[in-house]
Amino acid sequence: MSSKGKNMAKINVHGQDISLQTVAEEDYISLTDIARYKNQAHTDDLIRNWLRNRNTLEFIGIWERLNNPAFKPVEFDGFKQQAGLNSFTLTPKQWIEATAAIGIVSKAGRYGGTYAHKDIAFEFAAWVSVEFKLYLIKEFQRLKEEERKTLGWDIRRNLAKINYRIHTDAVQQHLIPPALNSRQTSQVSASEADVLNLALFGMTAGQWRAANPGKKGNMRDEADMTQLVCLSNLENLNALFIADGLPQPERLARLNRIAIHQMTLLAGDDPITLIGGGES
User: Fold this and answer.
1) Continuous segment of H or E residues that includes residue 105
2) With contact defined as beta carbons under 8 Å apart, do 101 and 68 qualify?
3) What range does the domain containing 123 cover?
């Protein structure tokens, strides 16, 4: 399971909540939370023991060289020479401050703890438990897929919203006479929105709400991708028709014909019936 918030998210792996944060547009995973899966009481000790390991230092050192131009290799070599000695200890803070590392970050406060870039976090998870690493990767990929789907919907919905703003501006510039109050303006704008609704969906927003009393939102929220693409095109065309001074009935007839043609091409379905049996 996963949950998301602003620049952060959580996934649940084998009953352990694992926090994720966005750092410099990259995904960072909480090493502290991963360590809790192994030892609830001594997470810091577990992370320090992992860091002092020679294989760990070689891995994160190579990662920094590949991804961090400001990384300090001389300081890194000093740590690597000490790795394996019984007296050698290393904390995340010491590593970050000495080498200017970016792959591991330490945070204080409510969402504090030690976080690492996903590449490094997966290595730490494997050190804790190979099985846990595999489940962590699976849940992380599931979260990314959820985000991808959400982003795709947001892009389509925002495209419709942006074009609707263009369309609304055209209504205000070309249909609304001077000195109308805001109520009259909104009535004209709503009427123009229903021109698009009729052209594409065959009903007004009010008719849709009456026919779907149990649904939230509006017909545009229920639209599929092909309908949203067509709607965006219709909004732009209607703005041009308004600017050209075409009367509303003529615009509606034209937009309906265009919607039928475009939806036939986009969806590959049988043509939609013209509103009111208009021109073919």
Assistant:
1) strand 104-107
2) yes
3) 2-128
User: Same domain, yes or no, for 85 and 185?
Assistant: no
To the nearest 10°, the Cα dihedral for 36, 39, 41, 46?
-90
Residue 191 resides in a domain? yes
Are 174 and 210 found together in one domain? yes
Task: State how far the Cα of 76 lies from the Cα of 3, in Å rounded to an integer.
Answer: 37
Tell me: do 104 and 167 sit in the same domain.
no
Q: Output the tens digit of pLDDT for each of the chain's 280 residues.
A: 444 434 678 889 988 899 999 888 889 999 999 999 988 888 899 999 999 999 999 999 999 999 999 999 999 999 988 887 888 889 999 999 999 999 999 877 666 789 999 999 999 999 999 999 999 999 998 888 887 776 656 666 666 666 666 566 665 554 433 443 455 444 455 577 888 888 888 888 888 888 888 887 788 888 777 788 888 888 888 888 888 888 888 888 888 888 888 777 765 544 444 444 444 3
Question: Amino acid identity, residue 30?
Answer: S
